[in-house]
Structure formats: structure tokens, C-alpha cells
Automatic annotation (TrEMBL):
Residues 1-10, 28-38 have a biased composition (Polar residues). This is Uncharacterized protein. Residues 11-27 have a biased composition (Low complexity). Residues 1-38 are annotated as: Disordered.
Amino acid sequence: MPKPPSRQNKATSATSNNSTSAASSANKDISQQEDPGSATITVTAVEVPELTEQEQSDRLHLERKVERAFFEAGKALSELRDGLRPAVGDRKLYRSTHKTFEEYCKQRFGYTRIAASYKIAAATVMDNLLTNGLQKEEIATDELQTPKMLTNGLQILPNNERQVRPLVSLEPEVQREAWQKAVEEAGGKVPSGRIVKDVVQRTIERTRVPNTYQLGEVCQILAKDNPELRGKGGCWGIVNHVGEFSCTVTTWDGEYTVRIAHLKPLNYLPAECQQMQLISDRINRLRDNENLEEAARAVLKHLGELKRPYLTAVEEKLLSVIEQEYGVNEGNEPIAHS
């Protein structure tokens, strides 16, 4: 009797046929694929719409507002301190709430005296760059008319205070030259504060003059928008140390180390220098008194700004009265009060 066919063999055969067919199909697919190195990848592009003219205008306007933020801050601080027209006299817009501008800046904005002065000085430098070479255009804003800072060809504007601060110590004409040199070194772009500082330092070294001041000489301080010398412009001082590029001078209210660019020789005769030294000694003995009243301090400040090497009769009497009141005389000996 014939043996029935085995089901197991049928199943194996079917499985074998299916595997062979799948392998054949896979081989066929692989053989039809391109070299992966030359395969084309399809990327769906997302279209970015171009800015409209209005959007371009808005962007430029906002960028300029960011760039001139430090400039506007310095200008505003200057007006708060001096008014819109400084020549007319200080308006002191802070006077209703604060006695001094320094106190006002500290409490209202968190600025120290030096920080506020640097912002004002930086705005002065920016004004110089705008007025002499960089263009200025008036544009309307929501609140006021403000200068729109532009670039003209290769002329690039500073956009933060760090780039401007090193220029403060230079004369206005030299500021413009130094800034353009910094722009060149930055490849025609806005230079960093470090680049500007390096250029300014090289400029100072190139133009520095020898220090000819002598010990005991009387000279006058020139503030020249140097924030650290604010309030000292016009004061005379006695040179007590001569450095390579600066002098330490004794003034009516203390000692200051000042670069020779900020000093002016008064060319007094030796005898006149000795007379001014005596006056300086008398003022200095008084200024250290903790109980010195404002009226007495005002007299000392006046004497510290003299433009002559002597005291008038009235000035001598005033100084003598203050010395007597606070127990000091010209010989630095206490005066006994009855």
C-alpha cells in the first residue's frame, strides 16, 4: 500500500520556497539600490518670506535704538544735571528730591558718581563723532526727536559704552582718528572695547611729551571731560611727586595723581611758589578737621581756585578767622580759647 506523502515535508518545502522567494526579493531590492554615497536626499524647503519695506524700516529703527541706548542715557544724565542749555546755568532737575547729583544718581539709577560721569563723557565723545564725520539725521519717535545714528561708507558707529570710554582721554580731533583706526583694525566692523583701548594707548604713547614739572611747582588742573577730575577743573595744586607721565599734586581738598595732559603750568616765580606752598599748608591743616562747617569749606574751596599767587587782605582775614575758630594758626600751633 503506498505510503501517504509526509505533511512535514510539504510544510518544509513550502517554508523553503517562501524563504527562497523572500531572499530573492531582498537581493533584487538591494541590487536595484543606488550607491549610498551618491544617493539623493530630498529635503522639503520652508519658504521664508522677505521682509516688507515697513518691516525693514522697523528693524533698522529698533537696531538703532539698541545701539544708541548708552548715548541716550549719557545725554539724559547730562540734561538732568546741567539742563538743556548748560550755558544758561544748572537747572538741577533733581533738586526737589536730592541735594546732590551724585546722591540722585545713586538712589534713582544705582550709578556711582564715576559711572554717571563716564556715561556723560561717553555721550560727549559720541556727539563729537556724529558732528565731525558721522552723519546725524532727525527722526520722530513716540516721545521726542532723537538723532538717528547712521553709517556712511566705512564710517562705523560705536554701539556700547565700552567702545567709547577709552576715547574720553583724547582730544576731540584725535578721538575721531583713533576711532577710524580701530574700525580699520576690526576689518571694517564695529571694534571691541579692547581694540579701541589698544589704539588709544598707542596713540598716547606716540604723542606723549616729556614730563618737565618739578617738585614744588604750582600748576592748574584741566578737567577736559575726564570724569575722575570732575569738580577739580581750575583748581591749583602743588606738585609733590613727578612720575614719567603724571604728577601727584596737593590741592585744597586732597591729593590727586593727574596725567600731564590734564595739567597746566602757572609759571610762578620760585618765591611765588613758596608763598603758594604756605597757603596750601594752611588750607590742608584746616580741611582735615571733622567739624569744619560748610561756610568754612566754601572759603577753602575759593582759595583753592585762586588764579594768582597771593591772598587779598579780605581773604587773609577770612582764613585767619577760620584758623582761630578751629584752633590752628600759621605755625600749626593750637590757639588757646579763653
